[in-house]
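Appendix B.2, paired examples.
Example (i):
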Amino acid sequence: MAPVCGRACVWRGGRARWLRLPPAPARLLPARHLAGTPGSTFDVAVVGAGIVGLASARELSLRHPSLTFGVLEKEKELAFHQSGHNSGVIHSGIYYKPGSLKAKLCVEGAALCYEYCDQKGIPYKQCGKLIVAAEQEEVPRLKALYERGLQNEVRGLKLISSKEIQVKEPYCRGLMALESPYTGIVNYRQVAFAYAEDFQAAGGTVLTDFEVKGMEMAKESPAGSEDGMKYPIVVRSSKGEEIHCRHLVSCAGLYSDRISQISGCSPEPRIVPFRGDYLVLKPEKCYLVKGNIYPVPDPRFPFLGIHFTPRMDGSVWLGPNAVLAFKREGYRFYDFSFQDFVDAAAYSGLWKLVLRNFSYGMGEMYRACFLSAQVKQLQKFIPEVTIDDILRGPAGVRAQALDNDGNLIDDFVFDGGTGDIGSRILHVRNAPSPAATSSLAIAKMIANEVERRFEL
């Protein structure tokens, strides 16, 4: 991560080490302060203090200053999981199906992200991106990607020749590339903290160390309340603490399906965790990469493939791969959760996905174990990279939504439910990459939907 918050990368003993830096603003309220105050009430409670949950809470509190809003986060820090373990790329919206929410929200969200960072003085770099065709068979797909980007109204796109590639990236080799000059990089955890500060300044409350474990309709008014049953939903934490609210918005990421089940709504789509392991270039080799360098995606496979990503701290990440994680928050190869493993293994949709992509999955596992295999992929684009130039780096876990037929849910999914609680809750069921880029645009859409459903 960039050194302003979260974690910083240093090199010791020949490999990358990650040091924790100061986390969330000190004035965030820990949930333990709720002990003995079961009457704490909110008009709307947001579950999850990732970048989407914080952006949504911020948007709602700014629109409705007379209402009370709370954010419930199970960790002691904010933006701790997907929002704090990502590549940091401000995407431009090239890849996504025209007319999809991904395409619309990414293009709008990128513009809003740059504007917000300028307003808040959050550092970013508009370093651009090249999607490089290294083989002749990739050129038609690259041209089709260019046409898709134009349909999505992505700014500044152009196809460039082999010689032009080397002007932009002197050490990169390719037959043709698609240049996206408005792609950038930022520290998204710093952005999330800024959302939290805006939310608190507007009167919102952030409750950390509050892991949602139960929901039910209140049988009577909260103690000391004069509002009758105005706040009928009781939300309980794993420690037995509780809050009362009128409505709920769930932005639970890796646990979105479980929160849906807790609320009495459908468990579909299910979340299957995929870990992405990054490599990092040694500091003395970072001159090899100036901006983002991506391969042309292969439509036969579900993920983009490994790429070169510069970071705000000056380091360069290589990757990620995509392997099934045996724990929803398992950032190390040996991390294991029995419940998470059983949930994944018992889901027929996962087995259908595995069988459909067996050779690809085995290749990803092989490359995860043997660095030389990953280096071979990297050398297609920058031949000068050798195994001596790289180190194992950090990892992230992607909350991949999967349906019962084994299809990856590619777009954003928002839904509610039926019954007393279900009719009072909005679930953000799937917010895949580029959710961080799109966070402000997503927040506007969620706020609109909350207003429509709950008549705020």
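Example (ii):
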Amino acid sequence: MAQHPRSRCSVWLLLVLLQAAVLPARLCEAPGQVAVLRALSSRLLALAADPERDPDPSVYLALRLAREHDLRREQQYLERLQDAFQHRYGRSLQAAGDPRHHAADTEHSTSTDVEWLETGRLALYLLGLRATCSPLEHKLLRSLVTWLKYYLEEDWAGSRRHGHPITSYYQYSLGVLALCVHHKRVREEVIRRLLAAEQHVKFGYSAGSAIDTEAVVAMAFTCLEQERLVGSTLAAELRAAVHGARKRMVEAQGEDGFFGNIYSTPWAMQVFIATNSCEAQAPYGRAMAALLQHVDAFSTAATLAQVLPVLHGRSYLDIISMRCEEELDTLTPISPEPLSELPGNKTVRLVVECPLPPCPERWLYDHPVLVPAGATLLDVLRAATEQGPPDFTFDTRDTPQGPYLSGVLGLEAQQQKRTYWQLLTAPSTSLQMGIGDYRPCDGETLILRLTEW
């Protein structure tokens, strides 16, 4: 498994541990970790307060699903989200015209998987609005729901010849989940598209199972059954599908305790929480222990937003039954101490592979790169562009998870061709962090591989 960088949380975790208050634990919550959970929530609150960061609905969801709150700052963050979304979606489709043109007007898209559809992002925003506990103005909610249903249909219809949504099954299932949480019925055909994909195991990447996608699908199915939005026959099929998904997750659990990798694990754990099976499943306890052991890997707002709900013993389905009058308005933001600079330099070997047909040869680049001792993978890539020959180039795209590697040596990852740049440490271990967070060791070999999914 890839080594994690030095803990960024140790100082502020220690401070909050000394101030820990005793609160009753939730059924699936990290046992005996009240102070750790508060510290992580405080860290996310501090990151959310940064006006330079684009608002992310998943961050708001994580703040709302925590046990303690700063209600004033959460309201301020909600207002920023509303500014980002409601000028665009607070109108009818007829008044808006062709949504593709409006999508092109957004300068800072936070999705790495779309051309113009925003199925997943709009779904997360709708989930966030449900978590406010404030009744939405009917006309606005109806407009948002109409847009999401439109996206679901366009997402699928535009790619019938491929047999998968234009965006991804992950975003498509988030859309179904968001509609269900708002107790909005979904056409049976839309549900059966996901059911057929689940039954034919279409969610896998070439490097393994897409745990996060299967988990979101399972939560959508669980919601539809629990909220009684489908008939008894379809409900039985959905129950069986969720049982099968949970079984495959257990089978995919590694010796390190993770389901897939550290970042897909929280999604899998949400399924156990949503189906009330976390206590009865030993794999859930192993995964919780693994997350707590490597909590320092969750250092960005987006990754903290992924892990915090499950550490608090909650899934997105808990949004349905939230009781806002019982909330503790006791949280305060805590910023971590900055990392000190490490002395000296290190050498990292950078390899670029392209085993796909368009490439003239498999190995396109293989050279050592000299960087400062504390350099991230992104720093390695930047240094490689300055240390030729041969010339090295790369492109990134901004996402809530940080910079996403979109192109290397002129070869772009393309949604239409279902390709992405896989990040590995030799010989074949997938990195569990993004290029802006992972800090390679001296002498390590990093592989950038253009891969189909």
